[in-house]
Amino acid sequence: MKRFFHIAALFLATLLLTACPEVKPGPDGPDIPGGPDESWRGQASTEKLSGITYQINVYSFADSDGDGWGDIRGITQHLDYLDSIGATALWLSPIHEAMSYHGYNVNDYTSVSSRLGTENDLKDLISKAKARNIGIYLDFVLNHSGSDNIWFKQAAADPDSPYRDYYLISDTPGGYDNGGMGTWYPMTGADAGYKGRVHFKVDMNAKTVTVTQTSEPVQSPNTQSPKCWLWYGSVTQHVGLYTTGTNIYEITLDIDTDWGFLVCTSTNWADGTKWGGTGKGVTFGVPFQMNNTTAANITFGGDASYYFASFDKSMPDLNYGPAATAATSPAFKSLAEAADHWIEMGVAGLRLDAVIWIYQNNTADNVTFLKQWYDRCNTTWKINGGKGDFYMVGEAWCDNVDKMAPYYEGLPSNFNFYYYWTLKDRINQGRGNDFAQTVTHFRNQFRKYRADFIDAIKLTNHDEDRVAHDLGRDVAKEKLAAAVLLTSPGKPYIYQGEELGYWGNKGKGDEYVRAPIKWARNSGLASASLGGKVDHAMLSESISVEAQEQDPASILRVYRNFAQARNAWKALAKGEMEPLSSPNSAVALWKMSYEGQTVLVAHNFGGGSAAFAVTGCTTDKMIVSNGVADGSSGLLSLGPYASAVFLQ
Ligand code: MG
After folding, report:
1. Angle 417-429/435-447 helices, nearest 10 degrees?
2. Which of 168, 209, 234, 363 has its CA 20 to 30 A from that of 493?
3. pTM to 2 decimals?
């Protein structure tokens, strides 16, 4: 019986939703039933005001040449679509030659990856997007390069290379208090190993090993209860040494090892009985001091140093020296020259990856660095005739808003992860009445550090489980999240696929939150980059752009309606949020005002209907809505997860 009721309720809700008039906001003209005086619509702007940025995974957005990889020309071919979703900017995933499909381990910051296109393709995109008032933002990875970057290869090949200064390289790994992120990896220089006949003498009294080149006959390993073993080359077991004195062990061997060797005093050598070095190589004939704490590989005079990587072995961290003088460091200069090239070409902004790790989670140093980086790029922007200040947004992914807010001293814009975490929690709890107050609190924190901060609000991105996943794949909740995002103060980011209701989580791989756009019911997918990690069940005909454009009740329509409203109404696009006391715990209520224009924003975060008296909500001044929303009876009534915006 309960189940029947549920189905009946769903059917009724569907009828209501379908019956609800589709609202075309702004200057395109009124589709809203209401009063005879529609002159208020003349206050709508014909400019694009929204500040919406659409986040693109270039490798999986759209494929123009049929090779299965998304590419830059694919983006250019879909500018109509991006325009229709109100975008005033596109954030492209890293476009440079890189080691992996996602591009975050860059081999050459001055190049365009041949898989994604050419410089001319980028110039063409910049110019055609600009004609639609859409700017292009590049993802710039300053924390680390790829280990195949020529800078790192030269640093690894030659201990005297000037490129050693570009990275954090040390003979004695350790020393960063960096919140647990990062590992020291051996440089593994080409001559770390050795091939030839050598005599080993281990002295466990002095904890030394002496390696001597020799022409003496080779000995078979000692298999009669040895007390000391060697491990080297590709052997999978220890080679026993002969006892020649008190705690003295020796053997002569032909060895072939590409990494050096280790000494063990037990076959259970994980237990403090593994003896090695601290990163230095042996000198033949000279006793080498061993230890069992670092116990690093003992090499043969090659590069025995280590490099630091916050994220991955393939991503050595870049080194800018002391933060106060970062701009004078060789790595900074090289990266700034690369950035100059893109800014001169017409790129309108940069998204900076992982900025809290540039100085290993040291906020003050990172901010000092970022100021210098921003000033350098902004100068280039202005020299090249850029309007206003250059846009730059940081991924300062901190645990809490208080830790992130100081990054506004370094950058004009930062991603607001806390906004999404709050929104997700409140929608899942059906509780909207403290949402505006919480968002205002975040904004007040940012304001402390920069008066003209640009709050980069978002739902999810390429590194997070999808919003649809987080909201239990409940389409009504997903539409609500979209409506809230596009009626909130700040600069909203829409991540590729969010507008279509893509779901997916990182459990089986990041690729599942980076799915290609399904453009038409029967179109193929730009999925070659994803190594088969594609959820074909999700990428059905009905989730396609083609199907959703034709369906008035689709998620895509909600995105488009609210994006158009944001583009047209300056109070929505540029207004400051004024939280209003909510008469219903499920309802979020706020005003947005800008240059004499005010709108009232109402969202029902709950699964039940809500009706209450609120001044200034008449249906004939409803700019945009989603779900069942009505203000005609003197009360504002909102159906489950419904939203409405009224011009005041
Ligand atoms: Mg392609």
Report:
1. 170
2. 363
3. 0.81
